[in-house]
Amino acid sequence: MGKRAEQAKKRKRQNNGKPVAVVVAEPLTPAESTDSLLLPEEIEAAILVMRTLAENPELLADKEMKDVKRGVYDLHKVLVEGATLGSSLTSRITAALKDYRFTDALVLLFEMYTRRMPPKLGALQRWVRECDATSGADGSPGDPEALRCLDMILRIANMGEAGNADLPGESSDARDHVRKVRVWRARTRGEDHPDEVAIWDRMQNKTLFGPAGTEAQKPYPGFRVANFVRGADRRPPNVYDSTVWTSEPGTIRLTPAASRRAPTKVPVPGVPGAFQVLDVFTPDECLQIIQAASAHGFERDQAAEGSALMKTSILARNFLWLADTHFLDHFYSQIVPFVPASAPVHGGVGGGKVRGINGRFRVYEYTENQLYRPHIDGAWPAAGLHPETGEYMHDSQPADDPLWSRYTLLVYLNSDIPEDTGCTTFFLPSNEMGVMDATSVRPIQGSVLCFPHGDTQGSLLHEGSAVGANGGKLVIRTDLLYEARGFGQFKPATAGATQASQD
Questions:
Q1: pLDDT digits 0-9 by tens, 84-138
Q2: Is 133 in contact with 142 (CB distance < 8 Å)?
Q3: Is residue 281 in some structural domain?
Q4: Rounded to whole angstroms, how far apart are CA atoms 391 and 385?
Q5: Selection from 287, 367, 358 nearest residue 321 by Cα
């Protein structure tokens, strides 16, 4: 039996004894193609050929393999540099991460690090999103290779703050790349509000609106629809429609000043720029917000196309609320003594004065095992209603007085969450390259977690960690707004977008 016959016999054994037909097809022209340029059987045959050559490299010495080697080289070049993405270092990193080629991405990221080339904010957010290093429902770290890339991305973004570091190790254990520092709580349970309301427990027992069986008023008094977008018209397209509700002044009854605790600020240890303001809202105010959201219903959120379909996060349901000016003024007055008076300045950009709170609230409902992958928040404009027509506006500010967000605000509406779950977890580079320190902030009802975003340097990588068994987390995501005119351009989210980062 000749050499080629032996090789054919070997291929037959590798395919469970089933003969494989090698199809040689003429290239399809655009006019001849229907749904795809390649038929499934052609793809299957190509995969078989590549696997056979990888297992039998001596075949590549044959003269007839010359064109095959050229074709494989061209394909490899496209995979490494990214099809239609250009050949810049930033584009090559994006292409590698998108294809889950984390080792290639790490090499390119290290080159960027050694050349001291900070990325733009958009690239930084895109890289973090493509890593998709979602933690497990049990709190275990995500993909170890993705975590190594995340660590290097953070070091590139904050090169001015990086200390001496060793080269990355070769461990494949994700636990070696994330070091859990602590689950931090801003105060002890004994110091919690004496009138704290177990809102999640009420939701499960169907006593949210009163005694068991009490039905909610629909629509909830004082609320009306401000904007509605069908799923296909959302940007990016979504499986589900989106409704923005707005409230009339006084709809949420505010607790009198004499009956409420004074807010206090507590910095988050080891997380630069992050702090928690306690007692911004009373338990009753938190309850009213969830009553309104539950009466109208939390909407589902699922991308209809694009790379988001491949991500591991299970998006929380949400209620979009354009808060009224009366409520916003109260919120702002509660926290303004504690927030930075001016936006951070990096590279000569920033410094605008603080002006208010974004009225577009995303009220999220996380249930058991739901989490949101590590991400970096982007800047948002000031949403509102047109002063004359009442139309909902993604950016309601005049062109000569733009306001863009520079800090994330997370309002925790409930504390009855299974112990040490449902936290907001921050990831920061440690003093050892390849390893990140993780600090988890425990939600406290009525408190607000504040941290910087909207710039390459200083923006914090964080995730909405999984909620424990039978539990739920209720949280509002909004933003602190600063003057943008004359202080640099911080690109807001795409006009008309309804999907935001979740925490």
A1: 444 588 989 999 998 889 999 999 999 999 988 888 888 999 999 888 876 666 6
A2: yes
A3: yes
A4: 5
A5: 358
Output the domain CATH number for residue 322: 2.60.120.620
Q: Does residue 492 belong to any structural domain of this protein?
A: no
H helices present in 158-296, as ranges = 199-205, 283-296
- Give CB contacts under 8 A, 24+ apart, made by 86-91: 89/117, 90/119, 90/120, 90/123
What is the total count of domains within the chain? 1
Residue 72 lies in a domain: no
Residue 215 lies in a domain: yes
pLDDT tens profile 319-355: 999 999 999 999 999 999 999 999 988 766 778 999 9
Two tokens at 337?
Answer: 């003594």
Where in the sequence is the domain holding 434, given as residue range(s)? 182-483
At residue 439, what are phi and psi to the nearest 5 degrees? -120, 120
Alpha helices in 56-159 (DSSP H): 66-81, 89-98, 102-114, 121-131, 144-157
Place of tokens 């911004």: 280
Residue type, 53: L
pTM for the structure as a whole: 0.78
